[in-house]
Specification:
Length: about 260
């Protein structure tokens, strides 16, 4: 298995920032706004393994065919249940244990999310405000493409989410401005409206919204598993054990043959 990895840092403009004075005055005018700087970076890391990202990956059927090659019938262009020689034994064991059978279904968001939870790793260095996300797969190019799609879809989801929320804030503040007559409150609402329009501009700019990548997705030259040293040690130990067992078996058979001949 090969490891693809990508380093991420918080995007400078990813926070929703509203000054304390503006927040206080806006609240007096009946508008609740975020307080201080709210970073989207931790949320971006949590979103990488989310169902929303899995749903986005499912929409890329070409990538899905590569992710689940044993269940995709390229000749007939359809999903099919993979052959399993142990299927009768598994069915019998489930019946014995009263486990309800689950009919096979084509891979979907649930399967993709399980794959991400298993193969996607997130290492965050909070002191340097940097995170490394990595994904392992037997196909290094597939690991690279899936990791790139995960990052892209997670960032797009957060951008769309912020777009919708900020647009709602702008509509509400604009409506409120038409009702407020006090000059001080109108000034606070106008400043808050400007901040929200700035956030909306950032969300719609098309640039990385919450996490900025340092370079592109890279793939390690050497496989991460199996480990050659561990494999050599395990093979040596297994060879010694098997060799010793064969020697003992041969000695036992020789002694048994001698006793039989003497009898």
């Amino acid at each position: 298995r090969y490891r693809a990895y990508l380093q991420l840092v918080p995007t400078e403009q990813s926070g929703v920032s509203v000054s304390r004075n503006i927040t206080g005055l806006a609240s007096l005018a009946g508008v609740s706004l975020p307080k201080g700087q709210v970073s989207q970076f931790p949320l971006a890391l949590e979103t990488l393994k989310s169902r929303d990202v899995a749903d986005a990956i499912v929409s890329d059927q070409t990538l899905m065919h590569r992710l689940f090659p044993h269940e995709w019938d390229a000749a007939h262009r359809r999903w099919r249940e993979p052959d399993d020689a142990l299927a009768p034994f598994k069915a019998a064991a489930k019946a014995l244990l009263a486990v309800p059978p689950h009919p096979w279904s084509a891979p979907g968001a649930v399967a993709v999310q399980k794959l991400l939870e298993r193969d996607l790793a997130i290492e965050e260095d909070q002191k340097r405000s940097i995170a490394t996300i990595s994904l392992t797969n037997a196909d290094p190019m597939l690991a690279r493409d899936v990791l790139a799609a995960v990052y892209r879809d997670a960032d797009a989801h957060l951008r769309q989410r912020m777009d919708a929320r900020t647009a709602a804030y702008i509509d509400y503040i604009s409506h409120k401005l038409q009702q407020v007559t006090l000059a001080e409150h109108r000034e606070a609402l106008a400043a808050a409206l400007a901040e929200q329009e700035r956030t909306l501009m950032i969300a719609r700019s098309g640039q990385p919204f919450a996490a900025d990548p340092l370079g592109v997705v890279a793939v390690a030259d050497k496989p991460v598993s199996p480990n050659p040293l561990l494999a050599l040690a395990a093979g040596t130990g297994a060879g010694i054990t098997l060799g010793g067992a064969l020697v003992l078996l041969r000695d036992w058979r020789r002694r048994r043959a001698e006793r039989t001949a003497q009898a």
